[in-house]
Amino acid sequence: MDSILQRPHLIAYFAGTIFPFTCFFSYILALALNHIGLWITYISDASTDPPVSGVFGMLLTYSMIAFLVSTYVRKKLVECACEERPEIATSKVRLANHVSGWLALTSVICLIFVAHFQVHTTMFLHGTMAFIGIGLGVLYCFLQVICTRAMIPYYTAPYLFYLRLTFTIISAVAFVFGVLSGLLSVSKFKGDALHRWAPDDGGYVEHAISSVCEWILALVYAGYMLSFAHEFKNIRIGSMKVVLVRSAEHQVKNGPNRIEDI
Fold first, then answer.
1. 254 pLDDT higher than 70
2. pTM score
């Protein structure tokens, strides 16, 4: 635990690698078990049938927790920067950082729903949560670009601003094209199962475009988390405090409350 607290950049490395590992491992496992063909498919479609669905749900949950921890550390980093440098602490930066924290939490919750509610059983819930979760992720990227720009040159490097701006533009374009082509493909679909979309089921080209956009989004979000590692190398996380609350009578007999470091 102390090693992680003293090296918080490891959190960003973990978040940025476990997510793409989850996607590719689940896809390869589904191919090996003949759950899907070699054609292009959504990430979650490849993980619809057990046991891949269980593996995908478990790994994606771990990935989202890692994402949430990384975004929380990032939020606290920006807050510390605002406290030390008044020129950074504009109302725009503070608002962007605060809102992005809630966006990250909501996005993570939505994507955990996506992991555990497959499209073939709960299509509306799965699709809605995916749309909200990914869409909020795009907004998160945009707001953190604002924070990154304000932190130059004191706490970040200029190249990270341009890198995150590029990631944000790519994610926004992929999100729009992914949603539009996905809706169009569903309207043309004539097959039996959406998660087993074959080239002759209708709307396959649109489905392929939407699937590619989803994979691009997954890789972009992973890259965004990895970009935090550079800044996390310059911080340390303090130990949490646990206060044992006891009655006044117990304190008189045995001494005051005890505080332990974790």
1. no
2. 0.87
